[in-house]
Amino acid sequence: QVQLVESGGGLVQAGGSLRLSCAGSGRTFSSNAMGWFRQAPGKEREFVAAISWSGATTFYADSVKGRFTISRDKAKNTVLLQMNSLKPEDTAVYYCAADKRPFTTGSGYSGPDVYNYWGQGTQVTVSS
Predict the structure, then answer these.
(1) Chain mean position to CA 44
(2) In b/e form, how buried is each residue of 73-86, taking b as 16+ CB within 10 angstroms?
(3) DSSP codes, the chain
């Protein structure tokens, strides 16, 4: 069974940091770009960050650029999201996802339709 499992969420004060982890199992995702999305109550799921299959290129939503860093460890089949300088508006359920297109570069990472495996999500709450 192919799974993505997120961990690392929690409650943090504004200005604090959290590191989310997404562990893949059942298959390797080393040929696939990986992304992070989030969904706040009453809002649509939105793109946060993505990393190319090689790990050489990263993409960020404007709202998190300079504060969040995505990385991957292919040996561990894991993707990380380091979140610094957190704001109350970062409060959401965070999901990781795997791009269904192997070996793609440079396009389409912000659209949820290109991802075919999703984790169950981890809650991040930032208090003011």
Answers:
(1) 16
(2) eeeebbbbbebeeb
(3) --EEEEE--EEEETT--EEEEEEEESS--TTEEEEEEEE-TTS--EEEEEE-TTSS-EEE-TTTTTTEEEEEEGGGTEEEEEE-S--GGG-EEEEEEEEEEET--SS-TT-GGGEEEE---EEEEEE-
Residues ≥6 apart with Cβ < 8 Å to 35? 47, 48, 49, 50, 51, 96, 97, 98, 99, 109, 110, 115
- pLDDT tens figures, 29-81: 999 999 999 999 999 999 999 999 999 999 999 999 999 999 999 999 999 99
**Residues 12, 13, 18, 24: is their CA dihedral positive or negative?**
positive
- Rounded to 10 degrees, the C-alpha dihedral 39/40/43/44 comes to 0
Residue 56 C-alpha from the chain's centroid: 16
